Every structure is written in structure tokens, then in C-alpha cells.
Amino acid sequence: MNRIILIVALALGLAACEKSQIDTTFAIACAALPQADAVFQTYASTGRVSPAVIRNEQAAIAAGQAICNGPPPTNVKDALASVRRVMDAVLKSIATAKAQSQGA
Fold this sequence. Notes:
Layout: H1 2-13, H2 19-44, H3 51-69, H4 76-101
Helix pairs in contact: 1-2, 2-3, 2-4, 3-4
């Protein structure tokens, strides 16, 4: 999980004003979504993660997929900000799922 957080943090933190850099950062952030979902699913597979946390993560992933898999955004900078909010929600779900799966 730490590797995913680092990749996403770097991608989202390095978003510069140049369109090509923003496009690249957007692509990296979108590519990280399935990996983050896989980490979440590992914790969810324990059967100890609450349905509310699972629903929150599913909603965040669906929102991210809609942004990343939809038509190319006309404003990539705004789309990148949306992906950042999605990833924040997914990472929060991962942290909660990890705690729940370990009985915390």
C-alpha cells in the first residue's frame, strides 16, 4: 500500500501547469486506481470489512472509472483534481479496511 500512496502522491503532487505534464500525471493517477482497488480487495476478502466501507470504496472506484475511462476531459486539470479526490477516498477506505481486517 505504501508504494501506491507514494506513486499517487508523486503523480498528483507533480502536476504542473504545462498541459503535457498534466496529461501525463492524469494518466498515471488513472493507472493507479485498479492497483489501489486490488489492495482494498485484499483486505475486504477477510470478511471483516464493514459493508459501509465496501460501498464507499466501490463508489469511489466507479467515480474514478467514469473520469478515467470516459471521453477525454476537456479540462484535464479539473479532471486531475477529481481523480485526486477519488484517490483520497479510496486510500481512506484502504486504511479503514486494513484496520477492520486486522481486528482494530
